[in-house]
Specification:
342 residues, mainly alpha, 15 helices, 0% strand, single chain
Length: 342
């Protein structure tokens, strides 16, 4: 007697709205997704630049252009670095901030303010502080990666654990120095702890763009290797990938991208998690040739659109980074509760 299933067949009408939307997104060709997102990003940028453009246009338009350029640069740096980090760690809820980059940035700012004074730090040449922050963050990551990947007993999981411990140590040292500071200096210092696109130094945009472009060019050349890395360490080794060398290279790229973004506008911890998680939902496949542009375009839409709404609807009632951290924190908890650890 043939076995029969006791469960009735599930009709398409019984599927949840979320499931049907997900299936529709999965069936959409990636090229069409990229085209639609690119059009949306261009429209948002044009609206941001041209809305209520009156008065001294020669003054207003360049300032808006600087702000938009900074947002696009951060969208590329943070989105690409988060996607790379999740690829090499094989985990959808991790971001490069777990290595302690944001905590190191805050420690550097706090130590400089504690030694030289917050007013001196605020008046210091932006080029000098920008270079120092990038040098310290990239140098720290390079030392950590080289140390943790030297020897037979080292592993990527141990590296992540050391990164978490280092971030905790940096936060503790920052908190200690902040408690020893004058309240007036701490108020000045506190403004540097949140990402801001309103006071970006135009002289740093060109240098940042060159660094990010160079790294992204290298990432694009590695896109097929990244597809293999996403299949796991054993598969990558079996097909001839030098896993240790490639992972070291990818992690250094992540460090440089995060360092540039953080030194330029400040820390944005959960922004990468937001755009990468959404990119995996709207992209049918998992090829990095499609994921990379989708992540960048989603990041540009989120930042430019969010800033536009913040300015025109809420009247600068809060900072965009606060909204990003709030939404990203909710998404992080949702992914944990959903059991999306991979």
């Amino acid at each position: 007697m043939p076995e029969t299933s006791l469960m009735p067949p599930v009709s398409p009408a019984s599927l949840s709205v979320r499931t049907r939307l997900r299936e529709a997104a999965r069936s959409t060709p990636p090229g069409l997704v990229v085209t639609v997102l690119a059009i949306a990003a261009v429209v948002l940028v044009a609206v941001f630049l041209m809305i209520d453009l009156k008065g001294n246009v020669a003054y207003v338009l360049p300032r808006r252009g600087i702000k938009v350029s900074a947002m696009l640069l951060v969208a590329v740096a943070v989105g690409v670095s988060t996607l790379l980090f999740q690829t090499v760690t094989a985990n959808r809820i991790l971001t490069p901030s777990i290595m302690g980059f944001d905590s190191l940035y805050i420690l550097v700012q706090t130590a400089l303010a504690f030694v030289a004074g917050a007013a001196t730090l605020a008046a210091a040449p932006s080029t000098a502080t920008f270079g120092l922050e990038i040098l310290l963050m990239v140098g720290f990551s390079a030392f950590l990666y080289r140390w943790m990947f030297t020897g037979a007993a080292r592993s990527l999981h141990l590296l992540l654990l050391v990164g978490v411990v280092s971030g905790t140590l940096f936060r503790g040292m920052s908190s200690l120095l902040q408690r020893l500071m004058e309240p007036s200096e701490f108020i000045i210092l506190q403004d540097l702890f949140f990402a801001s696109f309103n006071n970006v130094d135009p002289g740093l945009l060109g240098v940042s763009a060159l660094l990010v472009a160079a790294v992204c060019a290298g990432v694009w050349r590695m896109r097929h290797t990244l597809d293999v890395l996403a299949l796991g360490r054993d598969v990558a080794i079996n097909v001839g990938v030098d896993h240790k060398r490639v992972v070291m290279r990818v992690l250094l790229m992540c460090s440089l991208l995060v360092a540039v973004s953080t030194a330029l506008v400040g820390p944005v911890t959960f922004f990468g998690l937001l755009v990468v998680s959404l990119a995996y939902q709207v992209c049918r496949g998992f090829r990095h040739a499609w994921l990379l542009p989708i992540v960048v375009l989603l990041g540009a839409i989120a930042l430019v659109g969010g800033q536009l709404i913040l300015e025109r609807v809420f009247g600068f009632a809060t900072a965009l980074s606060v909204i990003i951290e709030f939404a990203g924190g909710i998404l992080f908890l949702y992914l944990l509760l959903k059991g999306s650890l991979k």
